[in-house]
Design goal:
globular, alpha+beta, 5-stranded antiparallel sheet, 22% strand
Length: 287
Amino acid sequence: MDCHSVEFDDIRYHIQFSVRDPHSILLSMSLPTPPPETIFFDGLPFGAIEAIKAAYGGAVQILDPPKDGYNLTMKLNLSKLPPDEGQRYAFLVKVASVREVVLGAPLRIVLKHLASKTVAPDVDRLVALLHRPKESFFVIPQPEKVTVIFPMRFRDPVDTVLATSFLQEFVEARRAAGLNTAPSCLWSPSPPTELKGAPDQALSVNAGFVTFVIFPRHVEGGKLDKIVWNLSTFHAYVSYHVKCSEGFMHTRMRRRVESLIQALDRAKPDLEKTKKTSQSRSFKRLG
């Protein structure tokens, strides 16, 4: 089997499986082109190798060098999967979430230290993390909180308008009574003051900036994995809802047009009946 796939339009995968070695699967991963402000080591975000080893243990072997055209190649040993069905399923879900494991590695390091109210050593005041091709989001680590800021960009002007409206409503929804414990969320059309010193090209946006403030209580217990996944895929989450909104509006517009056409059809006179009526009339000349 030789399979190619793309996730979120920015990460390419190459999966290889051979009957000659039925217990092994090769998984290669190509990351988006990183912007210059991000930090990569050997083609991967910092902490990615350690995160892979922690997530998959001895069931995965990292091949060095990776296959040509890819940032990472892993060999998955199926004979080392957990014997319990539930654990095996959870492990395979983790393999399918390799994007979060690799791209979310730096964020995971920062948030792990937040749980103990410390700042990771050798971490800058403003950390740029790979988000999308040639785009980054920013993390400001502090002992008592971590601020995460997303510069939002969209290519299509319609998507830009819908995303801006969606993000403003997203911030308003956070103020609902049932979401009091969720991370605080802000939207602004201009760069927040925390991004002072960031490169100008990284601050060029058309849908504003979204800011999340993460406190230690948000990463306690088993919450860390979920919040890393949610933050790592935030732009894809917004894009999904923008496209759904666009599709919903198109559907409503089509239904409205169809109803108007039906109304116009009902308003048309019956030409055949009108013709017969006019032919059956007779007039008598007077005089």
